[in-house]
Design a protein that fits this description.
Elements (H helix, E strand, L loop, with lengths): L4 E7 L12 H4 L22 E4 L3 H12 L4 E4 L13 E3 H9 L3 H5 L4 E9 L5 E5 L2 H5 L4 E3 L2 H18 L3 E3 L41 E7 L1 E4 L6 H10 L10 E10 L8 E7 L8 E8 L2 E9 H7 L3 H11 L11 E2 L5 E6 L15 E2 L2 E3 L15 H17 L3 H25 L3 H13 L1 H12 L1 H4 L5 H9 L1
Parallel strand pairs: 2-3, 2-10, 3-8, 5-12, 10-18
Antiparallel strand pairs: 1-9, 4-7, 5-6, 5-7, 11-14, 11-15, 11-16, 12-13, 13-14, 17-18
Helix pairs in contact: 2-6, 2-10, 3-10, 10-11, 12-13
Length: about 475
């Protein structure tokens, strides 16, 4: 008899059919400001090929790819759309191939967004260098975008939930996963061992729909955990099953962002995003990411372990930079913060851990795969996580379709993303040295060859390796 994974859930009656945004509905003018009708809640005891926990980019993409391959999927989202996701809002070139294959790129380009053509960096002493994104990618509209996650996630989820339902699956909103249990039939053996297509697979127990919800149970053999840095599936795999470290503050970043209008130099919908290594913030940085015409995501980030050590508060640091820093106080003189937009969050970095066999940390066990933030895959230098979430969303889907083992998923994920994440971690550690930042940015601002090298490194993983070749760097910087 087949042993199946099972989800015990609770929910409010047809939550996705209830318009919970009240009078806001009358004011909504954009599609991403509207609720998404995801159909009826599945009946108690329903069985699916795969259950995906989390409706962000990683979960939506995994569900979409599986559905297109003919799998019946249950896609569970904790909140009710429209919902926000605190983020820097950049969507890099890596993301766009997935956005295109999932059928969202044309929709995205027809909605308001900022098209990125370059990145500006400044050093603690105020030197500035601009790095152009690859011209070929810019011309093909594949260099990158910036747009609010409330908008991007809505477009992606809506498309993927339609793919899920068109292929026999179902979708639940207001589905908070509370608890997970396992029954993999291993008779007490290591739960991480065994084939991904074993007849004895993981089981989970989930509570969906809030405190007053009704419990329901669903069945599956395969689970994808994509519920962000607090993903209950990740907690059950990493912490509860293997007693490993889920949150390491030296590999987690604290982020804080606000939306501003009328910021000087940010009135267009095409141009540069900005990363500034401000003296009072290092180790960390201050960013300006325009997201549409005259709207800017303004934020600050720092590794949590270092933030606690220096006893700093991100909101206060950002306020001081905006009001007093010579590079920014004039640019913000006539600017206005969007009321209620100041929010903080955590980013689980994909930086390699010492003495860790499963890099960056465990992301799989029999019948379960973690993706995106749930797998701790945010870039340690740029803070961008959407691209890696989409990459491993597709990877998890493919491994389920091909019946590969959890060890194969873990190894291939790190083989695919590890070199880039490792280089970014090295760059993050270098950026903690103010004197080095000052010297490098000043040198780069005067040498087009260095700017070309940096452009190449954005587009090429092979070129990124040059950053850590002492001889290459010596030749480039000194001659």
């Amino acid at each position: 008899m087949m042993v199946k994974a099972f989800l015990s859930t609770s929910f409010k009656a047809n939550p996705q059919r209830v318009l919970t945004v009240g009078c806001y509905m009358a004011q909504a003018t954009n599609s991403w400001e509207l609720p998404i009708d995801t159909g009826a809640v599945p009946e108690d005891g329903s069985e699916f090929d795969v259950i995906v926990v989390g409706g962000g980019p990683g979960g939506s993409s995994a569900a979409g790819y599986l559905a297109m391959a003919g799998k019946t999927v249950l896609l569970i989202e904790k909140k009710v759309w429209p919902r926000d996701k605190i983020c820097g809002d950049a969507v890099g070139g890596k993301s766009l191939s997935h956005v295109k294959r999932l059928g969202v790129k044309d929709i995205l380009e027809s909605s308001p967004h900022f098209r990125v053509t370059g990145i500006k960096f400044s050093s603690p002493k105020g030197n500035v260098v601009r790095v152009a994104l690859p011209e070929e990618d810019v011309q093909k509209l594949e260099a990158g975008y910036a747009l609010p996650r409330i908008q991007f996630d809505h477009l992606l989820f809506d498309r993927c939930q339609n793919l899920v339902r068109e292929n026999g699956g179902m979708v639940i909103q207001d589905g908070e996963v509370k608890e997970i249990l396992f029954d993999d039939g291993n008779g007490g053996e290591d739960p991480g061992k065994g084939s991904g297509n074993s007849r004895h697979s993981k089981g989970v127990v989930v509570t969906i729909g809030g405190r007053d919800g009704e419990n329901k149970t669903y069945f599956t053999k395969e689970i994808i955990g994509a519920g962000g840095y607090q993903c209950p599936v990740a907690r059950a795999v990493v912490k509860d099953s293997f007693s490993e470290v889920l949150v390491d503050n030296l590999h987690y970043c604290g982020g804080y962002r606000e939306y501003w209008t009328n910021v000087g130099g940010c009135s267009s919908n095409v141009g540069d995003i900005e990363i500034h290594f401000v003296d009072s913030i290092v180790p960390g940085y201050f960013w300006l990411f325009p997201v549409s015409e005259n709207v800017v995501n303004v934020g600050i980030g720092m590794v949590i372990g270092l933030l606690k050590k220096e006893k700093k508060k991100l909101k206060a640091l950002q306020k001081d930079v905006i009001e007093n820093h010579p590079l920014f106080k004039e640019r913000f003189a006539d600017a206005k913060m969007v009321e209620g937009s100041g929010k903080g969050w955590q980013l689980p970095f994909g930086s390699p851990r010492k003495k860790e066999k499963n890099q960056p940390r465990r992301a799989s066990m029999n019948g379960i795969r973690l993706v995106g933030d749930a797998a701790s895959l945010v870039d340690p230098f740029s803070g961008e996580g959407v691209g890696n979430a989409l990459v491993c969303g597709e990877l998890a889907a493919n491994h389920i379709l091909e019946g590969k083992s959890p060890e194969q998923y873990q190894n291939e994920m790190w083989s695919l993303l590890g070199p880039e994440l490792t280089n970014s971690y090295r760059m993050q550690k270098l950026s903690r040295k103010k004197w080095l930042l000052n010297w490098f940015v000043r040198k780069a601002s005067k040498k087009p060859k260095i700017q070309e090298m940096m452009t190449e490194m954005i587009a090429s993983k092979e070129a990124q390796e040059n950053l850590h070749s002492p001889w290459f760097m010596f030749k480039t910087l000194m001659f």
